[in-house]
Amino acid sequence: MVKKNNKYLGWWLLIFLPFIFFKSGYAEELEQQPVSLKVVIHRLISDTDGTLIDNGGREIDNKSLGGMKGLNGVTFSIYEISEQLDSLMEQGKTLEQAQLTLIQTDHQTDRLVPLTTVVTTSEMNQEGVAAVDLAIYPNKRQAFLIKESGSPAEMNVKSDQLIVITPVYSQLGEQMETVHLYPKNILKTATPPAKNELPKTIQPSKEPKIWDYLPKTGELIQSKPFLFGLLLVSVGIVSHCYLKRKHF
């Protein structure tokens, strides 16, 4: 009886073991297959710096944006920097510390090859929107750099770079398949150069006469007595010449 039971057990193992190994191998193969993470970029501009946005990955309605507007024509380049993340983790940094370091690092993108490049346009009655699908692997930590690489001519300030580390989880602990990001900056209009003003025309002053000049200089304070005396001297000279001529 025991031998018979062992025989049945052997047959059952022979039938089901291949399915068990097949299922395990299939699950491992699925983990090695990339899945898609959709990243939606909302490029915003603001007149002031008073509005704070929670970049937690969820979509924010327009009413919560505090009057900020979308900006079309902005180019974003996406790079994978997973090796930099792994290097920081190997140095003993936590995931949060490594992410902060990556955010504060001025990445030399001229040495990196972008995975893709997107430009913000108008979508679903919203301006300044661009979407990209990133290939990520389940249960594998990856880091992506999203950097503004081009903007319209009227914008002289670019938005800050963003770092996305996958997998991304919501506040409820659920893995997210779509992530919304809101890079922004204050709108600063370039100050137009000052116009070259023509020099003001200087009118030549009237040539001073003795009657105007002498009292104003302070050289002769009493001008009328001076003129009266000059007149008396002139009359005296004329009278003297007349009398002298009469005697001859």
From TrEMBL:
Where, by residue number, does the polypeptide cross the bilayer? 226-243
What PROSITE patterns does the record tag this protein with? Answer: GRAM_POS_ANCHORING
Indicate the segments annotated as coiled coil, or none if absent.
Answer: none
Task: Report if keyword Iron is assigned.
Answer: no
Keywords of the record:
Cell wall, Membrane, Peptidoglycan-anchor, Secreted, Signal, Transmembrane, Transmembrane helix
Q: Where is the Gram-positive cocci surface proteins LPxTG domain?
A: 214-248
Q: Which InterPro entries match?
A: GramPos_pilinD1_N (IPR032364), Ig-like_fold (IPR013783), LPXTG_anchor (IPR019931)
Q: What Pfam families does the database record attribute to this sequence?
A: GramPos_pilinD1
Q: What is the protein's given name?
A: Gram-positive cocci surface proteins LPxTG domain-containing protein
Q: Which organism is it from?
A: Vagococcus allomyrinae
